[in-house]
């Protein structure tokens, strides 16, 4: 959420060359786990219903692209090493860019550079 505005600007600037998708995975900073003081009050998901409910917070902040939710087995998070967060650029099933793990490796400006080359 910290860099959501920067992500939204990417969507606005490159929606003509890329399809954007957010995959909501397990909560990295749950209120009943390792959390920040000024974070959203989201407990670790114990069911898909809870994960869907938590994802609604993101949807309400209008990321300008579809939001899907990872399975409770965390198959997407595991396959893409996406926890707590990570940015990817895929083209024709091939990874063009794999960002660093968030929050420190979450760098929308690197994605911007990759997408500018495609544009």
From TrEMBL:
GO molecular function terms listed in the Swiss-Prot or TrEMBL record: thyroxine 5'-deiodinase activity
Catalytic activity field: 3,3',5'-triiodo-L-thyronine sulfate + iodide + A + H(+) = L-thyroxine sulfate + AH2; 3,3'-diiodothyronamine + iodide + A + H(+) = 3,3',5'-triiodothyronamine + AH2; 3,3'-diiodo-L-thyronine sulfate + iodide + A + H(+) = 3,3',5-triiodo-L-thyronine sulfate + AH2; 3'-iodothyronamine + iodide + A + H(+) = 3',5'-diiodothyronamine + AH2
Species assigned in the record: Crenichthys baileyi (White River springfish)
One BP term from GO: thyroid hormone catabolic process
Domain of life of the source: Eukaryota
Pfam families: T4_deiodinase
Assigned keywords, A-Z: Oxidoreductase, Selenocysteine, Thyroid hormones biosynthesis
Protein name (Swiss-Prot/TrEMBL): Iodothyronine deiodinase
């Amino acid at each position: 959420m910290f860099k959501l505005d920067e992500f939204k600007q990417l969507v606005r600037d490159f929606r003509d060359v890329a399809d954007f998708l957010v995959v909501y995975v397990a909560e990295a900073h749950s209120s009943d786990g390792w959390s920040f003081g000024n974070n959203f009050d989201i407990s670790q998901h114990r069911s898909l219903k809870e994960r869907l409910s938590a994802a609604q917070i993101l949807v309400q902040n209008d990321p300008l692209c579809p939001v899907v939710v990872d399975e409770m087995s965390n198959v997407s998070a595991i396959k893409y090493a996406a926890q707590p967060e990570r940015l990817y650029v895929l083209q024709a099933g091939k990874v063009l860019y794999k960002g660093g793990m968030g929050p420190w490796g979450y760098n929308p400006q690197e994605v911007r550079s990759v997408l500018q080359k495609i544009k």
